[in-house]
Design a protein that fits this description.
Helix content is about 75%, strand content about 0%. It contains 16 helices and no strands. The longest helix has about 35 residues.
Length: about 450
């Protein structure tokens, strides 16, 4: 009797081969068929996973930049000097780097969901530290939690978005991940500035709201991102290793990393120091204005990435490096003393940031093997994060010997020189590719096309 019931079902699949690939919403007992269905016909669950990963990146990045407009208030409340402010920014850059290198390869091995869940818990701990802060030590603990959270989620979220993103979508996976990071960076300071200006408990309310958003993302992770079947076996097999960059893409990775470092370094200057510059220029502190200006920098970044989403990655990087260099030259020429020139250079920096960082992410993803997306993506974003923290540390050290405006001017000249180097390197790489007759970089990275499942990805 058992054989009679099983045989017709098997013959049905043989007589109708297309039926095996039709999405039915039920778990298929054959793992190979289920894998083939995911490769050929993107399902609704895949789109939900992409939306959840993008939402997680926005929420985590927004949380990391929530304190930016509030640092002058913390400084008055706790009475610490500019060196402590510098160390707060340095803490984020120093902690997020090891987290990126550790958790990027881990996501390739154990799957995305465990790493993303860990990042939500770490972000919640960081927001709790800021909400309960009554000394600078709590601020440092909060920055550590935020850095660990964003470092843990970066590689896994980028790989998940890139893998599940439909190749027919107008916005490719790498561009969508870059947009999510820029959106979170814009929303964080803008939201905290408005809340600090118009709601009670300005140093607590933004973090309570962030905790509610994290709880919502945790619920979505449980429902939309499947648990990998081989997680336990992979956990026993995985060991911490540094991401391996294939030899064939090391030059491209170095140039993209330089452009991304420059993009986030220029934006890091404004995120770290613009609140102080605005306060001194207007002789008053308005967190809503500060948050709006900081948010507008990244808003221009978002618009630039969307408008030039179809241009080749090397073209985007070249244009972005030129805009960033022009922004730094304008800031250096005015000595950061003109409010109008500072705001204009900040908007130019936003456009350059979007083109340079978005083009860098697309160029690297186009050459990244499918099973190494989380690790190599984490290595690239490590350079981005180092760029965002380095200027604040450098200016903080320089202010121990000279005024803030003088330190900003000298750092801007140094950044403009680095921008010229990045522009030259990008042009040389593009010229070398044309001489070899290669087709990459292209406007639609092949990394967005379906391929074999990455190691550790849900089957």
């Amino acid at each position: 009797m058992t054989d009679q019931r099983v045989t017709p079902e098997r013959s049905t699949h043989h007589n109708h081969p297309l039926r095996a690939h039709r999405p039915t919403g039920r778990a298929h007992p054959d793992g190979g068929a289920r894998r083939m269905r995911r490769e050929r016909i993107p399902g609704r669950a895949d789109r939900k996973a992409v939306r959840t990963a993008g939402l997680l990146v926005v929420v985590l990045t927004a949380g990391a930049y929530l304190p930016s407009p509030l640092y002058p208030d913390y400084q008055r409340l706790f009475g610490y000097d500019d060196l402590v402010m510098t160390l707060l920014f340095a803490t984020f850059a120093l902690v997020s780097g090891p987290a990126l290198l550790l958790c990027g390869p881990a996501a390739d091995a154990v799957g995305h969901r465990p790493v993303l869940r860990l990042s939500v818990l770490l972000a919640a701990a960081g927001s709790c530290c800021f909400a309960l802060a009554h000394s600078p030590a709590w601020l440092f603990a909060g920055r550590v939690g935020q850095a660990l959270a964003l470092g843990a989620a970066t590689g896994a979220a980028q790989a998940l978005i890139t893998w599940h993103r439909s190749p027919a979508a107008r916005i490719g996976g790498p561009l969508l991940a870059s947009l999510a990071f820029a959106a979170g960076t814009a929303v964080g300071p803008a939201a905290s500035g408005l809340l600090a200006r118009y709601v009670p408990a300005p140093l607590t309310t933004p973090y309570l709201l962030h905790l509610l958003l994290l709880a919502w993302v945790w619920h979505r992770l449980h429902r939309t991102v499947p648990e990998p079947a081989a997680t336990r076996r992979a956990q026993r097999r995985w060991k911490p290793v540094r991401p391996h960059i294939p030899r064939s893409m090391r030059t491209l990775f170095a140039v993209a990393g330089l452009n991304g470092f420059l993009a986030w370094a220029v934006v890091g200057v404004y995120l770290a120091l613009l609140p102080t510059l605005l306060g001194r220029a207007r002789h008053t502190d308005d967190p809503a204005l500060t948050g709006a200006v900081l948010g507008s920098v990244l808003l221009w970044s978002l618009l630039a990435q969307l408008v030039w989403s179809r241009c080749a990655p090397h073209t985007a990087q070249r244009s972005g490096a030129a805009a960033l260099t022009g922004s730094l030259l304008l800031l250096a020429a005015t000595g950061a003393t003109s409010l109008l020139a500072t705001l204009g250079s900040a908007l130019l920096a936003g456009v350059g940031h979007g083109l340079a960082s978005g083009g860098a992410a697309r160029a690297v993803d186009a050459r990244t093997p499918a099973g190494q997306r989380a690790g190599i993506g984490a290595a690239l974003y490590l350079l981005f994060y180092l760029g965002s923290g380095t200027p604040a540390v450098a200016v903080g050290l320089l202010t121990t010997w000279m005024p803030l405006t003088t330190a900003m001017t000298r750092l801007s000249w140094a950044g403009a020189a680095l921008g010229a180097v990045a522009l030259l390197a990008t042009c040389c790489l593009a010229g070398s590719a044309r001489r070899r007759g290669g087709r990459r970089p292209t406007s639609m990275p092949p990394g967005d096309l379906p391929g074999p499942l990455p190691s550790g990805a849900p089957a």
